[in-house]
Structures are given as C-alpha cells and as structure tokens.
Amino acid sequence: GAVVSQHPSRVICKSGTSVKIECRSLDFQATTMFWYRQFPKQSLMLMATSNEGSKATYEQGVEKDKFLINHASLTLSTLTVTSAHPEDSSFYICSATVAGGRADTQYFGPGTRLTVL
Amino acid sequence: AQTVTQSQPEMSVQEAETVTLSCTYDTSESDYYLFWYKQPPSRQMILVIRQEAYKQQNATENRFSVNFQKAAKSFSLKISDSQLGDAAMYFCALPFLTQGGSEKLVFGKGTKLTVNP
C-alpha cells in the first residue's frame, strides 16, 4: 500500500521557538493532505486541509498564523508551529490522498510527538 | 453537521472471545460510508473496515464485521476470536466532502480495547 512518512517522529523544543513537521507521500502524488492533532487519550481533530499549490483550509478555531501549512509539491506538506508554547504539545498526524480521493484512500503518517518545554 | 458518537471509552475482552464496539452517527447525506480505524500503541492509524450506506449487507473483513443499522444510524464493530494484537484504540469515522472535492474524516472519541490473555 501507499506510504506516508513524517519527520521528525518526535521533537522537543523550547517555548517561543518554531517547529517544522514534514509529511511526505513516498510512492504516490498527494494532491491533498490533512493535518490532525491528537491530545493524549483523545480523538483525532482535523486542523486543516491542504491542497497542492493553494492555500490551506483551516478548521474553525485553528489559528492559521500559528499553524502554517505549506503544500508546495505533490509529495510534501509541512506544518510549522510558530512561537510554540507548552499548550501546543501534542501528537500531530498527517494523512495524504489523491485529488477527489475517497476517505478510504487517505493514507496516514506515523505521527510526530511535539513537546514544548 | 456530521457527528460521530462512541459511548464506550473502554472495553475489555478475553483472548479468543468476541467483543462489540458501538458507534452512532448523524449525517444529512443519503449516500455515505463509514469506517472503523484501529490505532495501536504505535499510534499508526490503520483502516479496519468500511461500510457503504447503500449496501444492506454488513461488511466483513476476516475476524472483523459490522452491524450497520441505517435507520438507527448505528454502526457497531464486532471482533471475533480476539487476539492480543487487537488491543488498541478503535475509532469510528464518517467522511464528508470538502470544497476541494476530497473527503475529510470526522472521528468519534474512540474506544480503548484491552485484550486479556
């Protein structure tokens, strides 16, 4: 099956710094990628949808200036958490799909654990 | 708006026994489908089974089957002959169409399944 990777798998940073998380589709072209956030023992909450070459669409309540998403190529989307604070500590998961892809063709990355000190 | 409700935060089952996880949902769509995802301790999201709403026959994938009651908007997952490797968080999910034409997923809060040897 299709493979999606995320890098880094875990990151620890100091409060006030910015952190970039990469999501790559390794063997297919992903015109759409989704970014989720998962707090401990909670469900996945969709943060934003990014389409290659266009601006991301953010879910209600998600600060677009804090969570910058760039989907510049068909195999790479990045999520940058700007001026991170301890409350941003969470597990971030991306998924990738092709254009008009059905939800069962969403392929999930292994996630990135962010800890902000 | 689409909603997904999982009313069992935790369930346990003896190895080799059968367990049923509950899920109810709400949607205004007439044609849709539903998913069960598994998230083991590795945190990797794995698609377990999919049900298309127009199909009356319940989906089955090896030891996993669903009981889909469209009128009641109920979508339960039955795991037969439970194995230790089935221990995980299980999420029920409902897709809906984005403006870009792809489908994003709404997840329930999840059920943590413990399998006892």
Q: Could you outline the blueprint of secondary structure elements for this entry?
A:
The complex is a heterodimer of chains A (117) and B (117).
Chain A: E1 4-7, E2 10-13, E3 19-25, E4 32-38, E5 44-51, E6 57-58, E7 67-73, E8 76-81, E9 90-97, E10 107-108, E11 112-116
Parallel strand pairs in A: 2-11
Antiparallel strand pairs in A: 1-3, 3-8, 4-5, 4-9, 5-6, 7-8, 9-10, 9-11
Chain B: E1 3-5, E2 10-14, E3 19-21, E4 24-26, E5 33-39, E6 46-52, E7 60-61, E8 64-69, E9 74-79, E10 88-97, E11 103-107, E12 111-116
Parallel strand pairs in B: 2-12
Antiparallel strand pairs in B: 1-4, 3-9, 5-6, 5-10, 7-8, 8-9, 10-11, 10-12
Characterise this structure.
The complex is a heterodimer of chains A (117) and B (117). Chain A has strands at 4-7, 10-13, 19-25, 32-38, 44-51, 57-58, 67-73, 76-81, 90-97, 107-108, 112-116. Chain A is mostly beta strands and 117 residues long. In chain A, strands 2, 4, 5, 6, 9, 10 and 11 form a seven-stranded mixed β-sheet that branches. In chain A, a hairpin with a 5-residue loop joins strand 5 (44-51) and strand 6 (57-58). Chain A starts with a strand and ends with a strand. The relative contact order of chain A is 0.33. Chain B has 117 residues and is an all-beta fold. In chain B, 0% of the residues lie in helices and 54% in strands. Chain B has no helices and twelve strands. In chain B, the strands form three sheets. In chain B, strands 2, 5, 6, 10, 11 and 12 form a six-stranded mixed β-sheet that branches. Chain B starts with a strand and ends with a strand. The model of chain B has no long low-confidence stretch (mean pLDDT 93).
Primary descriptors:
heterodimer; A: 117 residues; four-stranded antiparallel beta sheet; 11 strands; globular; B: 117 residues; six-stranded mixed beta sheet; 54% strand
